[in-house]
Amino acid sequence: MKKITLGMILMIATSTAISGNDVWQTLFKEKLQEAKQGNSNAQFDIGSMYKNGRGISPDRDKAIEWYSKAAAQDNQKAVTRLKLLQANEERFKKELATATNGNKESQYKIGNMYTEGIGTSIDLAKAAEAFELSANQGYAKAEYKLGLVHYEGTGVKTSKKTAYKWFTQSAKKGYPAAQYYLGKMYASGKGVKRDYTMSLEWYTKAVDGGFNQARSEMITVSEKMKSPKRKSATPAKNVATVVKTGKTPSSNITFGIEDLMVAAWSRDGKPVAYLPSAINNCRTESDKIACYSDNQTRKTSDSTIKFKTKSIMRNFSNDGSFNVTYRNLVIDSTRIVAIEDTEEADEIGGEDVNATAYTVKTGWGKEHLLECRMKDIGTVYCQKDKTHSFLLVSPQTVASGN
Fold it and tell me: pTM of the predicted model, to two decimals?
């Protein structure tokens, strides 16, 4: 019989329809024959396969038995592995004693040790039990792991609804991995009603917490949220504003959220990201408007910065005013030296280190506040951070017929 090597396994797995499990089972049978004939390397391999459950059910005692046979022949890999197993076994015993006394961190660690077979045999059912003990005490990491257990069905029956429950509890405590999975569930509609707005919110929090994998997911969701600009919109309740303009025969004009939503606001001829425009996707949410922009870039002679903008419009009042808060999410981090001094140089995020240098950090920049007022159907005046004012215009409005 021709020998099967690990290299051949990779070739077989990628070039045939045979399952990975069948390949490991075939390798196990061959290695076992060699191990029984006294080959110490094969004995070590059999020990590893028993330990990790490759081609055979995991069995710690069997793993130690075969490692010991290889070590008896002075196989140094086996000698080192046995020492590690012994050290981990002592560690497991100490952790288990603490966990038994109700320590939530130890319960969490025991769950991980059962999952990975550290100091004990792999036992996914016991891992789930340990995670649950810790999660019931409000330990965020364990809540996340328990959510993952139910999400993937490892050691328990798959339940997306239960996974949602535990991911939510962990996410609300600020655990980024749980926030990521919660965003994933809202995006897929599995375990909870599909809601791209909520998905984007949780992905955003995950990125803010350093879970970089969520960035690509944010882009995917924001693209799915996009829809053609509507020619009309349903105004939210109790948010109509009355603005005295003095520019028309009528002394009063009534505006509503739809007047902001259907416009395409720009500044100096360029679309803005913090009001509804051609470069973002916006939705009405009760008495506010939430927008999330496309990818934007800012180029200088030295660098190109890629970023997105999230904004909220709220506090509509009877004098035609409203507030906008927005933050920029830097996707690519860059350092710019000798940047031109402009009034919006600090919008991207980061810190001014001196008058001629500017550091751009990956992640969310500081929050900015705009205090705005609609003067007529296509004009908005805003003051940014109480420091400078500017004019926003929109010729594309329902009133103009464009």
Answer: 0.53
